[in-house]
Task: structure prediction
Amino acid sequence: MTDWRPDKLGRRLPTLAARARLQAAIRQWFAAEDFVEVETPILQVAPGAEVHLAGFATEWELPDGEERERWLHSSPEFAMKKLLAGGIPKLFQFARVFRNAEGSALHHPEFTMLEWYRAGAGYEAVMADCAALLALTGVEELRWQEHRCDPRAEPERLTVAEAFQRYAGVDLLATVGSAETLSHASGVAMHAGDGWDDVFFRVMFEKIERRLGMGRPTILCEYPISMAALARAKPGDPRVAERFELYVCGVELANAFGELTDPAIQRARLRADMDEKERLYGVRWPIDDDFLAALDHGLPDCAGVALGFDRLVMLATGASHIEDVLWLPVR
Result:
């Protein structure tokens, strides 16, 4: 509980100064691109839609004594899409977000997410945005542990299916729906109760992620449609979604979608995800009906991305732990 002490704070000051410079440069870049910086509420009806995340719940006490359950958001996505539906075409936010039951060198229960959306654009446009923001770090190389990456190099673009073939020797799309087939083909163990998604994530962790973003950034795209609850299907191939993740030095840095705008499909996916969450963890989050109302009103064709800003600062400064780039960590 002494992270404020002059000796400990002093050791973090160089990385914190770099953090401030990078945040200022990013704000200038978005301003030049005619984005609006927004601020949306942290307290939400639902923290998000992620099956495997844990949230922070709280109670809102109204003056008349009524109590309403609210959640600290895990992402500002739903709120920002409401503003898109309201007519803001390009927006970004440095959002404080919250994820329970997380902690490691790369994870913190409260962290800063840089999220932005472009109306009238495909997800290739936000791929280009990601490359531009990496160059704004102003360093010769991004670093994580012993790994290095050139922030100005053109990102490698690799589909998930190509990555599974290259690094795990698996024809991924031929295994969809069969955890046993994916486990056998990849040589990665299947545990009791595992579904296909569980084995997929284990193969990603054991064989693929640590090999991405070496030397130059990697854009890993076209995720199986079951892993893109908020992304639209790729035109011409409904087996995969317009979703990509940005990797640098084996670290997942950003997650992006060509956004799903069909309200009926979105409703069905949210319900299915909450059914799966309840099956796996015995809990389900509320569904944000106001978000669905915004989709009913009309969400424009758009693309959006969420980038872990603390992780970007870590990579730019060579910090070994996320707490090295925080003014004060949660204790």
